[in-house]
């Protein structure tokens, strides 16, 4: 890699590979079965499970039935907007402007207009259940941190990376984004979309079919536990980030 990354790091890649000995075997297995998987259905499934991680009440069957019956609800509208956001990402290049557009599309039914398509200007405390687990970076530093993140994404997009390195950096993008927590709301869902967007654009479009959101939902306790690396942005210990980054790889088996 010719240019130095600003906010991401390859520091943990060697440890990552050592703890991931069957990566290529699992990746090839996913590619073989992906041809038989329906792209549209799995985009809808990804949206449903991404929202279920954050307590949307509809499961996949309920969503399909409500869609067929033209039934309306707030939870259904959230899913439909997130599907539109995924569809937009699937058709457009990954850059900061397009990414902000996905937030605008997905958060239509949740946030007031002034909070959509822009980074937050207030402090954010992250809770899990009833506990405060994390204090995000101050709002005045959000834009610069997001600029750094997307500068790194530009570098990675232009760099020759192994398949395993792309998975590694996709997970790290997810992790770093959540720790910046740039929006007033809709951060976690945006992080999962961003992870898959980079992965698919850098490698193959069929990686949009990866059931990562379903895997995270079915392992929700571990998902939140592994992403929680310290109590505030300045004290995060990324030496403990491997457990989280291995979760994306595990979803290849789904």
Overall description:
With 254 residues, this protein is mostly helical. It has a single domain (13-253), classed as Fido-like domain (Fic-like fold). The chain is 57% helix and 4% strand. It has 12 helices and 2 strands; from the N terminus they run ααααααββαααααα. It has helices spanning 13-18, 23-34, 39-53, 60-68, 74-91, 96-106, 142-158, 163-180, 187-202, 212-218, 220-227, 242-250, and strands at 125-128, 131-135. Strands 1-2 form a two-stranded antiparallel ribbon. A hairpin with a 2-residue loop joins strand 1 and strand 2. Helix 5 (74-91) packs antiparallel against helix 6 (96-106) and helix 8 crosses helix 12 (242-250). The radius of gyration is 17 Å and the shape is globular.
What secondary-structure arrangement, pairings included, does this model have?
Layout: H1 13-18, H2 23-34, H3 39-53, H4 60-68, H5 74-91, H6 96-106, E1 125-128, E2 131-135, H7 142-158, H8 163-180, H9 187-202, H10 212-218, H11 220-227, H12 242-250
Antiparallel strand pairs: 1-2
Helix pairs in contact: 3-5, 3-10, 5-6, 7-8, 8-9, 8-12
CATH architecture grouping: Orthogonal Bundle
> What do we call the CATH topology?
Fic-like fold
Strand order of the largest sheet: 1-2
Terminal CA distance reads: 32 Å
**How much helicity do the residues have?**
55-70%
Number of helices: 12
CATH classification, class level: Mainly Alpha
- Number of domain units: 1
Using the alpha-carbon principal axes, give the shape: globular
